[in-house]
């Protein structure tokens, strides 16, 4: 749930200063809502803008949001962990592994060249 809040606060265009511009109050996905005097938890609230515009950017969170099992479809060449890749060319789970592999590749090239 914490990563969902982070996605909302950083990526949602309608979330400004802790409030939702669509509802003109606190975001229901973060603080929950109220209906006829009864408190509704944030996990039971939904927002069509968030579902259509913000959530598709993060496929893993989208699967968690809709309750779909995530299948890690690739294995990182750097660290060996599984990850979901957006393209068929992805070999590394993130920037850290990619940069590390790039550094090792340059190191090998420079050692070979020095001989």
TrEMBL record:
InterPro entries: Cys_rich_VLP_dom. Pfam families: Cys_rich_VLP (PF14194). Residues 3-57 form the Cysteine-rich VLP domain. It comes from the Bacteria. This is Cysteine-rich VLP domain-containing protein.
């Amino acid at each position: 749930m914490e990563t969902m809040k982070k996605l909302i606060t950083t990526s949602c265009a309608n979330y400004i200063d802790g409030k939702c511009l669509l509802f003109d109050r606190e975001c229901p996905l973060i603080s929950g809502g109220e209906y006829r005097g009864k408190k509704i938890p944030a996990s039971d609230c939904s927002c069509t803008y968030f579902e259509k515009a913000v959530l598709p950017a993060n496929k893993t969170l989208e699967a968690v949001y809709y309750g779909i099992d995530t299948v890690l479809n690739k294995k990182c060449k750097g660290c060996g962990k599984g990850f979901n890749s957006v393209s068929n060319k992805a070999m590394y789970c993130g920037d850290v592994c990619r940069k590390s592999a790039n550094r090792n590749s340059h190191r090998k090239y420079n050692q070979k060249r020095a001989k």
